[in-house]
Amino acid sequence: MSNKQRKSRTWGYARVSTEDQDLRHQMQALEEYGCKEIFEEKQSGKDMHREQLKWLKLVLEPGDKVVVTKLDRLGRNLVELEELVSGFEEQGVELVCLHQPVDFKSANGRMMFRMMAAFAQMESELASERTKRGMDAARNAGKQLGAVRKRDLWERDDPKRAKAIIKDCADPGMSMNAIAKKYGITNATLRKNWADELKDAGKMKLR
Predict the structure, then answer these.
(1) Spatial CA neighbour of 44 closest among 19, 16, 20
(2) Tell me, what's the pLDDT at 120?
(3) SS3 for 174?
(4) Which helix (H) or strand (E) holds 97?
(5) What is the pLDDT of residue 44?
């Protein structure tokens, strides 16, 4: 089938940086535009090896359209963004940015694109610097960094539950599977939070 006979397709691409963020708003905007197929990614924009973006590039053909809500969904690296835009253009694929309309075919449009991409990259770097300063300040203040352990939460909010699980860990008749099921957690969470108690009871090798 020739390119003229083939019906062009509209592909959506949605990305958030972590598993904790929500894709729904991007998905809704892309669906309202008319995207029937949407590639969903949960990966940092700084990561050059995004699997869903890689798959999207493989299915594109001349005449197709790629739709994103904002340029920084494609990436926050100016060099990478320019490579993507140039690659789409060479392939005959149109790029549509819903919330930052840019005419990539004109000189003014390309200049605007570079400015927006540069600002996105700068904001990403500033955010990283703010995060680093905040972490340094927390360390200097003696605060513990990282995710709060489930054990710490239970000891703070539900001390009876916390004491009960320690008791069960010491009980020879309670396997790790039984303890995990009883408290609605996984064996991995159990090992991570109550390793000492499990070792003392000789249960760490049980699954």
Answers:
(1) 16
(2) 67
(3) coil
(4) strand 94-97
(5) 66
CATH number at residue 42: 3.40.50.1390
Q: Is residue 141 part of a domain?
A: no
Query: Does residue 207 surpass a pLDDT of 70?
Result: no
The CA-atom distances, in angstroms, between 193 and each of 157, 165, 188, 200 are 16, 11, 9, 14
Average pLDDT, the chain: 79
User: Which residues make Cβ contacts (< 8 Å) with residue 31, sequence separation at least 6?
Assistant: 12, 38
- Give per-residue pLDDT as tens, 57-95: 999 999 999 999 988 888 767 778 888 888 998 999 999
How many structural domains does the chain have? 2
Q: Cβ(47)–Cβ(17) under 8 Å?
A: no
Q: Do 186 and 91 fall into the same domain?
A: no
> Are 194 and 167 in contact, with CB atoms under 8 Å apart?
no
Catalytic residues: 17
Residue 207 in domain: no
Residue 69 maps to a domain: yes
How far apart, in whole angstroms, are the C-alpha atoms of residue 172 and residue 6? 68
Is 126 within the bounds of a domain?
Answer: no
Range of the domain at 183: 150-200
Q: What percent of the chain has pLDDT over 70?
A: 77
Q: Using a cut of 0.85, tell me whether the model's pTM lies above it.
A: no
The verdict on 15 and 83 lying in the same domain is yes
